[in-house]
Design goal:
Rossmann fold; eight-stranded parallel sheet; 17 helices
């Protein structure tokens, strides 16, 4: 079923105590001030309490975590069906942070349930620690697919008493490439289990993936009611490039000195480098991404919660599950690739009734992504322009049709009036006059320039013959080739060239110092001076390498060439110098990144 607006409004009269939850659990919810369920909770909880499988769709911030945890804990209040140490409830999540967030919520809900142990197993934590946790009886196991697979293969987990499986944020797990791991995990679980799948959207891909795992599932889809972050001010600040974005990010943080910000970037490398740059500007910033050890990620989050840092530079994956009440600003340094990630991002601010703001830094190359987000969620973005940091790039107003490109077709670029006589322009095209001396389709070319209709250079390429068809000039360039229906394979080759008769002559003598190929390269011939002799493969024990080179014995010789560098693993923690960091950004800006 799909919940429409009037269905959701009627849920306000429902209470948790009327849903059939465990009595002690209902008391715990009341002690936390939780009385009325959200729409997704009101419809999903009864289905799961009946023991049916469920496929549910809801955006972030709608309470879907409680929608599956409350029925699961009610189940755990009853005696187990089977005895053993393995978990009775398994929750799979795409990221470590989300797994730990779900674990914390489960512990809070299960305070009054005796012997309800909750364990989280994620990457980045030493295996012996998790082995010790799993040696005792576990009721709820929250895990990421990769680490769970490792523990299953080592025989550390027994799923014989599993009663319920939950796939949280299934769409994100598919995006991250976990489909094979999930299918292998599910294949080793008891078939009589109950299964619940929660996803931001129930696309055809998600439903096809879920079909073999669920038995006659009930479907609950929460129709969008606008954004769950209605108290978040959303705006756009146009930018001219990478360095301009850096300056804007620093200025946005400095404009709200008492507010913590999350800055979303596309890559792990950018998370590190932007964090370094902001520190040079005197801002308290730190990075969060998947390459950091779990211990480091926890320390960074703790610093954020304690207010020891003002800016967290994060990737989408790393920021999943982050719940810090003090976040007042979200900056989209890079727009997300998927529109739904935009909602997850801005959902980090404006929580618990607080107001927040989300600012997206948009270059002309980002405009298509912005349009996709605007159309999907019907967002009317405001436009910011910080004094002294205004962008040269300014798109036309939405819906305005730019000038045409010298014909009756509008271009697909950005913004305003078209260039005269065939400039860019078009539907929402990027405004601007042509560069002086630029290319004009209908005007005469610059002296010596390219003209589509002019005669070709001697022996050159002519786009149109007398019949208006594209063709090569019949007369070849001097020393060139004659093409009549193709290259002339029988003509004399250029001096020092070759004559091809049905292919290369493999039996001819090789050039001096070259090789003779008889059905293939001659591997037994003497190598060229300073070269190598390959017998059944490259010889790694061959003569000394060329001067300044290396000798490979099962790998590269670790000793670097003079003036080079030696890389030992990932970042060794040694900070780069201020000069090196600033030089890197200067090079990026020159390349237009």
């Amino acid at each position: 079923m799909t919940l429409a607006a009037h269905d959701q409004a009627s849920d306000q009269d429902i209470t948790f105590s009327s849903l059939g939850l465990d009595e002690d659990l209902s008391k715990e919810l009341a002690s936390q001030g939780l009385v009325n369920p959200t729409p997704i909770q009101a419809h999903a909880i009864p289905v799961l309490l009946r023991g049916e499988d469920l496929m549910a769709s809801a955006q972030t911030g709608t309470g879907k975590t409680a929608a599956f945890l409350l029925p699961a804990i009610t189940r755990l209040a009853r005696p187990p069906v089977h005895h053993g140490k393995g978990p009775r409830v398994l929750v799979l999540t795409p990221t470590r942070e989300l797994a730990e967030q779900v674990s914390k919520v489960a512990v809070a809900f299960a305070r009054r349930i005796p012997r309800c142990k909750v364990v989280s197993v994620v990457g980045g934590v030493p295996y012996p620690v998790q082995h010790k946790q799993l040696a005792q009886p576990v009721e709820v196991l929250v895990a990421t697919p990769g680490r769970l697979m490792d523990l299953m293969r080592s025989g550390r987990i027994d799923f014989r008493r599993l009663e319920m499986l939950v796939l949280d944020e299934a769409d994100r797990m598919l995006d991250m490439g976990f489909i094979d791991d999930i299918e292998e995990i599910v294949g080793q679980l008891p078939p009589e289990r109950q299964t619940a799948l929660f996803s931001a959207t129930l696309s055809q891909t998600v439903q096809t993936f879920a079909a073999p795992m669920l038995r006659n599932p009930q479907k609950v889809e929460l129709a969008p009611q606008g954004l769950p972050t209605a108290n978040v001010e959303q705006s756009v600040h146009y930018a001219d490039g990478y360095e301009h974005k850096l300056k804007l990010t620093a200025a946005l943080a400095q404009a709200l000195p008492d507010t913590q910000s999350i800055v979303f970037v596309a890559t792990k490398v950018d998370a590190d480098s932007i964090s370094d740059w902001l520190k040079l500007e005197g801002l308290r910033a730190d990075a969060m991404h998947g390459d950091l050890p779990q211990r480091t990620r926890r320390k960074v989050l703790d610093k954020l919660r304690r207010g020891e840092i003002d800016m967290l530079i994060a990737t989408d994956v790393a920021a999943r599950g982050i719940d810090v009440a003090g976040i007042g600003q979200v900056i989209n340094f890079d727009l997300p690739r998927f529109s739904e990630d935009y909602i997850h991002r801005i959902g980090r601010t404006g929580r618990a009734g607080r107001s927040g703001r989300a600012v997206s830094l948009v270059t002309k190359n980002d405009f298509m992504l912005l349009t996709r987000i605007r159309k999907r969620y019907q967002i009317d973005f405001g436009t910011m322009a910080m004094e002294g940091l205004e962008a040269r790039f300014q798109p036309a107003a939405r819906g305005e049709r730019g000038g045409d490109r010298g014909n009756d077709r509008g271009g697909r670029g950005f913004g305003g009036g078209g260039r005269p006589q065939g400039g860019n322009g078009g539907r929402g095209g990027y405004a601007g006059k042509p560069r002086e001396g630029g290319y004009n389709r209908d005007s005469a070319p610059r002296e010596g320039g390219y003209n589509r209709d002019s005669a070709p250079r001697e022996g050159g390429f002519n786009r149109a013959d007398d019949n208006g068809e594209r063709t090569f000039s019949r007369a070849p360039r001097e020393g060139g080739y004659n093409r009549e229906g193709g290259f002339n394979r029988d003509s004399a080759p250029r001096e020092g060239g070759f004559k091809r008769e049905g292919g290369f002559n493999r039996d001819s003598a090789p050039r001096e110092g070259g090789f003779k190929r008889e059905g293939g390269f001659n591997r037994d011939s003497a190598p060229r001076e300073g070269g190598f002799k390959r017998e059944g493969g490259f010889s790694r024990d061959a003569a000394a390498p060329r001067e300044g080179g290396f000798k490979r014995e099962g790998g590269f010789n670790s000793a670097p060439r003079e003036g080079g560098f030696k890389r030992e693993g990932a970042r060794d923690g040694a900070p780069r110098s201020d000069r090196a960091i600033r030089g890197e950004f200067a090079r990026r800006n020159n390349r237009g990144e």
